[in-house]
């Protein structure tokens, strides 16, 4: 499949794979809100699996709205990372200096049902990207990883020294772990590589404008968009997967991080490439260091929205664990980054997005 391209070329660029998705789009916005150099360009590649494009529009809604918010143009290609030839043409057309790699399938529960699809998209797609990067002499990569690489935690909070790859509970987590191992081997084989793997905890929230946010296709796989859709009346009730975990109230505990804080972490990671002597593979947690249970999240969102959140307790979901939250001290030291937005901010911004856009981007 030949890539569909919009906009022209500029002197230097960051390639963002999966840049029309949830975290990718907020990161694109964060970069453009901070960058002022006239020769700077963002190039987004996305196959639109997790993004919406209105009929008759050339670009997905998230990208179109970011252009309006920042008054800057974004080069967009509809392309799957399995298309090595199409990806190579993008590298030929643009002067790409580094890559931020989000493109992946991302639902833990779904990955248990569709392991082959997850391995194909997340591992094969990443290998294709790395091959093309190497061919064009691009060796700087920020990778969208996950705290799922730690498996069932042996200790809390989880720091980057925690063993990875052991006791992994889902093909999604395994795919992220395998990609990290590939990247480590790559950095060992060739010292030109500079790779920062950002291990996310649980992204939630929305852009402060209320115009871009999480817009999953079908029934949400993650807690916050599910709660938001119940609050807005789009879904009748929330399913709580298990209340017999060894936690404060029996429901799963997670470290939730505002997506704008997460996006800011990527900006910091890109800037780290400019430091003299920086090289090799580095894994960094991005979280708040605080865990909240499902029931605590429901109560917080009810307070922020003023809406009731009906819920029903059901059985545990395959691939889930009892609790995880981050030790984020390395992100403070290495990236000079820390999360600043509160749980109340996360809920208020999610509600602003969902209430203004009850059908997600289709409401735009």
How are the SSEs placed, and which strands pair?
Blueprint: E1 4-6, E2 12-17, H1 22-34, E3 40-46, H2 61-70, E4 75-78, H3 84-93, E5 96-101, H4 108-113, H5 115-135, E6 140-146, H6 171-189, E7 194-200, E8 202-204, H7 223-231, E9 238-241, E10 253-254, E11 256-258, H8 259-272, E12 280-286, E13 292-293, H9 294-305, E14 311-314, E15 323-324, H10 329-334, H11 343-356
Parallel strand pairs: 2-3, 2-5, 3-4, 5-6, 6-7, 7-12, 8-11, 9-14, 10-15
Antiparallel strand pairs: 1-4, 10-13
Summarize the model shown.
This protein is an alpha/beta fold and 364 residues long. It has helices at residues 22-34, 61-70, 84-93, 108-113, 115-135, 171-189, 223-231, 259-272, 294-305, 329-334, 343-356, and strands at residues 4-6, 12-17, 40-46, 75-78, 96-101, 140-146, 194-200, 202-204, 238-241, 253-254, 256-258, 280-286, 292-293, 311-314, 323-324.
Please tag this protein with its features.
364 residues, alpha/beta, Rossmann fold, 8-stranded mixed sheet, 11 helices, 37% helix, UDP_G4E, UDP-N-acetylglucosamine 4-epimerase activity, NAD(P)-bd_dom_sf, isomerase
Task: Describe the overall structure.
Residues 14-272 form the NAD-dependent epimerase/dehydratase domain. It is an enzyme of class 5 (isomerase). By secondary structure, the chain is an alpha/beta fold. It has 11 helices and 15 strands. The protein has helices at residues 22-34, 61-70, 84-93, 108-113, 115-135, 171-189, 223-231, 259-272, 294-305, 329-334, 343-356, and strands spanning 4-6, 12-17, 40-46, 75-78, 96-101, 140-146, 194-200, 202-204, 238-241, 253-254, 256-258, 280-286, 292-293, 311-314, 323-324. The two termini are 29 Å apart. The relative contact order is 0.15.
